[in-house]
What we know:
By secondary structure, this protein is α/β, with parallel strands linked by helices. The chain folds into two domains: 2-248 and 463-478, Glycogen Phosphorylase B (Rossmann fold, 3-Layer(aba) Sandwich), CATH 3.40.50.2000; 273-458, Rossmann fold (3-Layer(aba) Sandwich), CATH 3.40.50.2000. It is built from 20 helices and 18 strands. It is elongated and about 65 Å long. The protein binds adenosine-5'-diphosphate (ADP). The site of adenosine-5'-diphosphate (ADP) has 16 residues, from strand 13, strand 14 and helix 14. Adenosine-5'-diphosphate is lined by residues 17-18, 299-301, 328-330, 356-358, 361, 380-383.
Amino acid sequence: xxxxxxxSEAFPLVKTGGLADVxxxxxxxxxxxxxxxxxxLPGYPGVTxxxxxxxxxxxxxxxxxxxxxxxxxxxxxxxxxxxxxxxLFARRGNPYVSPAGQDWPDNPLRFAALARAGASIAQGLLxxxxxxxxxxxxxxxxxxxxxxxxxxxxxxxGSVITVHNLAFQGQFxxxxxxxxxxxxxxxxxxxxxxxxxxxxxxxxxxFADAITTVSPTYATEIRTAEAGMGLDGLIRQRxxxxxxxxxxxxxxxxxPTTDKLLAGRFSAGSLAGRIANRAAVRTRMGLxxxxxxPLFAVISRLTxxxxxxxxxxxxxxxxxxGAQLAVLGAGDGxxxxxxxxxxxxxxxxxxxVIGYDEALAHQIQGGADALLVPSRFxxxxxxxxxxxxxGTVPVVARTGGLADxxxxxxxxxxxAGVATGVQFAPVSPEMVDAAIHRxxxxxxxxxxxxxxxxxxxxxxxxxxxxxxxxxxxxxxxxA
Length: 479
Ligand code: ADP
C-alpha cells in the first residue's frame, strides 16, 4: 500500500521535538508491514541542502505568492517529496520562529501551502504515483483533509490525522480565508471556524477519516474539558474515529549494547557498564561519587507541562532520602534559573546542565538509577521509553503515554514480578515526594530493584507493534 505522510519536520533533517522522531522512524517500521511511505516536507535549507540531486516531479507556477516545485529524492532512508518554495521556506534556523524569536508572520500561508500540495498529491497530482492514504501530522499539515473536502472531487485517498500535542493548534485570523483558497462556506462551526478564528488542527480533526493520538490514555483524556484544550467537544463527536497508538523508540539509536555516546556499554545480562556512565554523569555534573546514593535524573524541556516548576519544592525530599539529582534541560527562563540556583545551593548533591546535549542524555539514561517525569500532561513521552531500555527506573506521573508505558510497583505488580517503575497522581509536590520515598525504599531492596530494571529492559518499546496498528488503520481508511 502507498501512503503519503505530510509533516513539518522529520529526524534527522529537521527536528524541534518528538514529532520529528515519529515522522522519521515510522516509514522504516511500516515498510515491514508492506506499507510504502513517501514523506512530504517543506524545503527548508536544511532539507534542500541534503538532497544532492533529486528529480522535479511537479512545478507550481504560483503557490501562495511564488513559484514552487516538488522534488523527489531519497535521503537517509526516507523517500522524500520536498516542497521547494523559496518564498516560504528558504529561511535558516528554527522552522517556525524567526531569528528575533517571533513566529514567522506568514506561518499560516507557509503551512497552508504544505497542506495544499499534500492534498493535491493525494488527489493525483503526480502522474506516476497515487497514494491510497494521506497521513498528516499536527496543525502544520492539518488543512489537508479540509482541502480534500472543499475541493469536492471524487475521493482518491483516505485521510488520517495524528495529534502529537493538542496544545499546539494553529489558530489564525478569519480574514485569511480566501488567501488560503477556502470557500466562504468553510467559515462555519461545521467547517474550519474555531472560536472566531480559523483553526487548522480543528479542521483536520473535523474532516480526516480517522484520528490518532500518540497513546491510548491521551486519546481518552482529550475527550474531557480538562485535557481537551477546547477541542474535546469535536473529539467526542468524532467518537469511534479517535484512537491512541503509542510511539516507539528507534532501537538502533537507543541500543545500550552498541551506543557510541555511552561511556560504558551494557546489556540486560550484564549491567556493569552502567558504572562508567554513572561516574561520567557525576563528574560532568559536579556530583559526589557516592556509591550508596541513588542518582535521580531529569532530561526534559524545562516547562510547566513537564512539571519542572516543582523541582525546587521536591529537592529537599530527595536530599533527605540520601539521593542526588542530575538535571539536563532547557526552556523556561525562570525554571532554568531555579534549577541553577538549586545546583549552587547543594553542591555535590544537585547538578544541572542547561542546554541540549544528546550525548549526555544517553549517558544519563545509561547511568542514572531513576528518571523523574512529573508531566502535567504527556501525549506519549519518549524519555521514559529510553529509560526502560537503558535500565533506569522511570518515576512518572500517571497521565497520557506515561500511564500506558510504565507498570507501577504496586504490591500486586511486585508480587507478580512485573513492575517496571513508579507512578503517581496527581502532580503535586506531596505526591512527587511520596513517589520519591517509595522509589528510594525499593532502591535499597536490591533484588526487587534489579528485577524492575530487568523488566524494563525486557519491555518492547520498539516501533514493531505501533507500525502494525498504523498499517491496519491505513488499510481500513484506504480509498
Ligand atoms: P517532548 O514533549 O519534548 O517532545 P518527549 O519525551 O516526547 O518530549 O521527547 C523529548 C526527546 O528529547 C527525548 O528523546 C529526550 O531524550 C530529548 N531531550 C529533551 N531534552 C533534552 C536535552 N536537554 N538534551 C538532550 N536531549 C533532550
